[in-house]
Amino acid sequence: MFKISVWHGNLSEDYLRFVTQLGVDCLDFGQGDFFPGVKEQGYPDLDALLKIKKKVRSWGLDINRVTLPDMTERFMKGEDGGEIELENASNALRVFAEAGVPIARQRVAGDVFPWMSRRWNAPHRGGYRYRSESVALAEDNKGPPSPEELDEWWQRFCTLYERLVPIAEDGDIKLAMHPSDAPFPDTPLGSLGYHRVIDAFPSKQVGYLYCCGTRAQAGGSPLVLDELHNYGRKGRLFMIHLRNVRGSLATSGGFEEVLLDDGDMNPAKILLELRRVGFDGCINPDHIPTLEGDEGTLTKGMAYSVGYLKALFAAMAVIE
């Protein structure tokens, strides 16, 4: 059956106790510079990483996913200093592999076009507010980059993965790519570009951190279910971000992120499709809205999201 992962938070005893009490299985580390050593030498210190892993496991948890140091525009545009970023990402992947981390994500600059929409927090039931975007309200939408710029981005991405994939294979660690968020037309890791990653790199270590909310922003539930089936039967779904949205760029020119039970998608259908394709990894209810009374990292929003997922898991177990 599936497992639940949440963000690493501040790794305090209170936080680890809280997520353990919720019944969480794993932690995801979304910051490329979180681990000791990254800011000092460009990549994590192995001994410090192993200490963090030991602390996490002492609470009955595991590390599910980490993030490599960011590839900024210096690398993606071939500027001075870019090769150092590539070397740091490579070294980080080796360290994570040696520490036995199962999944690593690489963030890359230029895969989103923030100028193509306006973003704000819209109100929802009971007054909670969360991320909304509209293309029509964009103040300075200059359109997507030129075909030449997009081709240059893809070539640099291939240079990056040509370095990382052999390391992932040797170290038995999976490389998971998140889709472009928001998925405007022609974003490099949007509806078409996302497919290209496993086309160009057919290694079984290459796959996806599939974000249901981001992909629903592109085309709603039908698109999400179709892509889960496609990538899942190929064994390329390494972990899932499960968030819900209203609207999509295709149907309304915008979208709103909402609580898991408050959007256009039926999360139970998503879980059923994941089960059909044999997915058995972690599901992370990311982008958790703030609810009334939330403070710091010990939030009612997280408790709601984890509890909602566990209730769905229990219902699925009954009908198996």
Strand order of the largest sheet: 1-2-3-4-7-8-9-12
How far is the first residue's CA from the last residue's CA?
A: 11 Å
Helical segment count: 11
What's the assembly state of these chains? single chain
* Class derived from helix and strand content: alpha/beta
Q: How large is the share of residues in beta strands?
A: 15-25%
What string, H for helix and E for strand, traces the elements in order?
Answer: EHEHHEHHEEEHEHEHEEHEHEH
Q: Quick check: average pLDDT?
A: 95
Number of strand segments: 12
What is the percent of helical residues?
40-55%
Radius of gyration: 19 Å
Low-confidence parts, pLDDT < 50 over ≥5 residues? Answer: none
Main beta sheet, described?
8 strands, parallel, barrel
**What characteristic shape results from the CA principal axes?**
globular
Q: Any overview of this molecule?
A:
- By secondary structure, the protein is an alpha/beta fold.
- Helix content is 42%, strand content 17%.
- The chain is built from eleven helices and twelve strands.
- The protein has helices spanning 13-22, 38-41, 46-57, 73-76, 82-98, 147-171, 193-200, 212-233, 249-252, 267-276, 300-319; strands at residues 3-7, 26-28, 62-67, 103-105, 118-123, 129-134, 174-177, 206-211, 237-241, 244-246, 254-258, 282-284.
- The strands form two sheets. Strands 1-2-3-4-7-8-9-12 form an eight-stranded parallel β-barrel, surrounded by five helices. Strands 5-6-11-10 form a four-stranded antiparallel beta sheet.
- The N and C termini lie close together (11 Å).
